[in-house]
Amino acid sequence: MKMNSTSCIALALCVLLAAAGTDASFEGEHARSLLQGAGAGANAAATSQIAQPLMTGLQTNNAQAAAQALAKVDNTPAAQTAASAAAQAYASASDKTATATALAQAFAQTATSAPNNAALAFAQAAAQGGDALNAFAAAAARAFVMGDGTATAWAKAMAAAIAQYGCDAVKPAIAAAQAQAQAQGAGAAFASALAQANASAVNQCLQGNTSQAEASAKAEATANGAAANAIAKAQATAGTGRKMLASA
Which residues 6+ apart lie within 8 Å of 90 measured at CB? Predict the structure, then answer.
């Protein structure tokens, strides 16, 4: 069959376009594959650096190891990983009191050395609810039973969480912690720890004074030397932290 020059050009263009489409499709699939691989790598890193050490630390009552894992909670995905690991460790524990005590001590260490990370972990546990909330509430109650620096560290972390993520976001976990502390005869210790930590925002939040609690928490957390940079960032971004946790 004879073809004129116009037909030849048209055929050549079709061949080139088909080839280009194939290349583009291949490149698109390759890019998606790379992105999926990157996501899998990030998840694997979170599992190896946070989930596994945290679970092992809680299961073996090694608060130091658990604290080192919690100190790596510096973003929402990491907080989700930590909350889920704590939930699993607590739910599967044969001695829940021992596991809660280990988490109480680990969290207190993190709240002292990395207050923003502790606040994020606590807020994420409240947001996830279920076993994650139960684990952190039980640990908080144990902290108030133990008293001293462990209790005040938790109180400061609660105030920092209110400052950064809002009263409504963390109130369920705080209320559960208070209820468990009272059930264990540590209601007075709970109130005493809040006073010692200059964390009146926690009581204000429990009483439903949301705006007052958040204003007090920002002032208190800054005065306590905790979360000052994170609070400034939260104010500048008009509540991004709360939206981020809610979508988790």
Answer: 58, 96, 99, 100, 103, 131, 134, 135, 138
Note if the pTM is more than 0.85.
no
Domain residue ranges in the chain: 5-246
- What is the token pair recorded at 247? 């979508």
Helical spans, DSSP H, in the chain: 5-46, 52-59, 63-70, 76-92, 96-113, 115-128, 130-146, 148-165, 167-183, 187-196, 200-206, 210-223, 228-236, 240-246
DSSP string for 28-83: HHHHHHHHHHHHHHHHHHHIIIIIHHHHHHHHTT-HHHHHHHHTT--SHHHHHHHH
3-class DSSP assignment, residue 184: coil
DSSP-based three-state secondary structure for 239: coil
pLDDT above 50 for 11: no
**C-beta of residue 105 within 8 angstroms of C-beta of residue 147:** no
Number of Cβ atoms within 10 Å of the Cβ of 103? 28
